[in-house]
Amino acid sequence: MKTTELQNIKQRYNIVGNCEALNRALDVALQVAPTDLSVLIVGESGVGKEIIPRVIHDNSPRRREKYFAINCGSIPEGTIDSELFGHVKGSFTGAINDSPGYFGVANKGTLFLDEVGELPMATQARLLRVLENGEYIPVGGTEIRKTDVRIVAATNVNIRQAISEGRFREDLYYRLNQVPVQMPPLRERGEDIVLLFRLFAMQMAEKYRMDKVVLTDDAKQLLMRYKWPGNVRQLKNITEQISILSTERQITPEILTRFIPQDQESTQLATIHSEGEHSFENEREILYKILFELRSNVNDMRREMSTLKKQMEDVQVSKPAQQPQFPSTQLAPIAPIQPINTPSLEDAVAEEYVEPEMESLNLSDLGRQMLEKALERNGGNRKKAAMELGISDRTLYRRLKQYGLDK
Questions:
Q1: Which residue has the higher pLDDT, 265 or 302?
Q2: Pairing between strand 150-155 and 214-215?
Q3: Which residues, 6 or more positions from 225, have their beta carbon under 8 angstroms from its beta carbon?
């Protein structure tokens, strides 16, 4: 791409920066725009991924048609199919009219699916069908509908890891990733950080009619050394804070450090677990699961022993013991055999399996905590929680009712 053309694009969309990775992302977007190929934008949260689909749409043959940006992570799982693919009247409670959905309304246009990695598996299957042949069926409908929509998707999650964990379809990934676009994180953009700070400071000065804050050379170096986990969004927030709260307009490193988080965890990237690593957060949760399963096994054993005890009692009732008859002879009577103090089956069962009340309560508390944590990790999805715990849906529902969590 020519330099003048690239500068025109940056000026049109208010893009600031000259780093090579950013220029390459814009170049790919302009090259793929005239085609109908699907584009997958990959980058951390806050890097400005939403600019790329706008550039693609405005420079494509579809630029006069509709453009919709949809955040897939903000739509509830129970309604996302209806939002995307529409529904027919009466298909669910509240469906008082037919709805075409985004794929119906955006026909001939472009759909930007942000946070596509958050889509449920069932919705991913529907999306794959639309991408392959342009066909979809509304929720509650039977008629196949056609649509011609250009898809641009974005994600901030590791899709390959999500595929290995069974949270994302591999065939959908390859269908979306016909042309990948990598957006660089702010910490890798060098002097672009200073240029962005200058832009945000100027915007604040113009908006609120105040003097613009200016960085010293040492403050610029400090700004570029920071890792910026929140990327451009975090830089803008800090610039706005400094513009409003700082009494000095000349920003030194000492002033800057009062606004940049010093917590080491806030400057580190999120840790991504290696493939095949256990999904439990810590050993305590592993212990919860073991105790939960152990309690179920003990209850099963108690039921089996109770059944065995009842069977033996039935046998004793049906065949009463015969008292031995000794013939009348002159022999000396045989001394009666002293009974051995052997515990009965009933005593054995009680001794082996009767749980003290406090121990039972502890196990109950552990089981309840295990269920609550599993539901919390899976966003309240009971089916996923049951799969994680290794129990059936029916068992999970019975435990929820037992612990009063079924509300």
A1: 302
A2: unpaired
A3: none
Task: For residue 35, count CB atoms less than 10 angstroms from its CB and return exposed for 0-12, middle for 13-18, buried for 19 or more.
Answer: middle
SS3 track for 243-302: HHHCCCCEECHHHHHCCCCCCHHHHCCCCCCCCCCCCCCCHHHHHHHHHHHHHHHHHHHH
Give, for 71, the enclosing helix (H) or strand (E). Answer: strand 67-71
Take residue 239 and report the two structure tokens written for it: 């610039």
Name residues whose C-beta falls within 8 Å of residue 89's C-beta, 6 or more positions apart in sequence.
95, 96, 97, 98
181 pairs with which residues across the strands?
Answer: 41
Cα separation of 35 and 58, whole Å? 12
Nearest to 388 by CA among 275, 278, 276, 270: 278
Per-residue DSSP letter, 169: -
* Cβ atoms of 47 and 185 closer than 8 Å: yes
Phi, psi for 36 (deg, rounded to 5):
-110, 15
The maximal CA–CA distance of the chain, rounded, in angstroms, is 132
* Residue 12 amino acid letter: R
Q: Beta-strand (E) ranges in 147-189?
A: 150-155, 179-182
113: helix, strand or coil: strand
Token representation of residue 196: 């962005």
- According to DSSP, the β-strands at 135-136 and 145-146 are antiparallel
Torsion-angle region of 86 (φ positive above 0: left; ψ -120 to 50: alpha; else: beta): left
Does the pLDDT value for residue 351 go beyond 90? Answer: no
pLDDT tens, residue by residue, 88-122: 998 888 888 999 999 999 999 999 999 999 999 99
DSSP 151: E
Strand, coil or helix: what is 114? strand
Can you tell me the distance from the alpha carbon of 242 to that of 259, in angstroms, rounded to the nearest whole number?
7
